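Lecture 7 notes: from sequence to structure.

We start with a single chain of 300 residues. Read the sequence below before looking at the structure.
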Amino acid sequence: MSNPREIPLSKRLLWPLEAAGALAVYGLMRLLPIDAASALGAAVLARVGPMLRLHKVARGNLERAFPEKDAGEIDRILAGMWRNLGRTAGEFAHIRTLLREMDRRVEIVGAEHALAAMADGGPAIYVSGHIANWELMPLAAAHVGLVIDAVYRAPDNPLISSLYDKRKPHPDATMFPKGSQGARGVMDALKRGRPLGLLIDQKMNDGIEARFFGRRAMTTPAFAQLARRFDCPIVAVRIERLEGARFRVTAHEGVTVPRDGKASEDVAATVQRFNDLLESWIRERPEQWLWVHRRWPKGE
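Now the structure, written as tokens:
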């Protein structure tokens, strides 16, 4: 969480109102059946999303990523993105429902790969991106017997931190906030042979440069650095929304970071490998990725 002193007073004064709104929406969605909450979220953001400033950011990102697509195709992807994001928001109130109904709502492919990565008793790192409903990775893992710790960005508004606590997929899982304290917790967990889940598709200003959709993109190297340091496999996990609140979660075979040269070169090669994999998933279902994030530098 950001230091409150670094956040403008005007913004902090709005925290109670922001928290009241978030808790009210969460409560409403929780009262509805999961399918209704998912559909309502889709309908609301399909209407509201295009009016937000982030809509322009998403359009610019799509035009950079798909210069061959015409305006109509971009519009269709944007509309699908807002519906998917709305569904994800509606489903957030139903983490426990998804856990209970995993067998009928989520098709899990490659569970053997996810489990094999932990077979020798050491740690493993599971990576994905902000695709479909990205909260499903630790839920699907818990369903097949893996309790994955995760790293998350704590909210600036401490009054809504209780909502983030509800993301915990299992009582034994640990949620590490981004920052120095969380980093120490991650290192200790990996030393103890714990599995770790990370989302690796957002811009990181102090990351390393890699290519993403043919353009320079500052990318987190942490997952590759940790895997090299602890000599543990990295398992890519793809999440796809099939229809409504139904999904497919696919775990790929684990890979290790090469040791063919300098550590920085081995890490860079691994980061590029996973950027390429994420890009291939996004190209297949572009409406399911979070295009509102400023992924590329200005002018790139």
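The CA atoms of residues 127 and 175 lie 15 Å apart. Keep this in mind for problem set 3.
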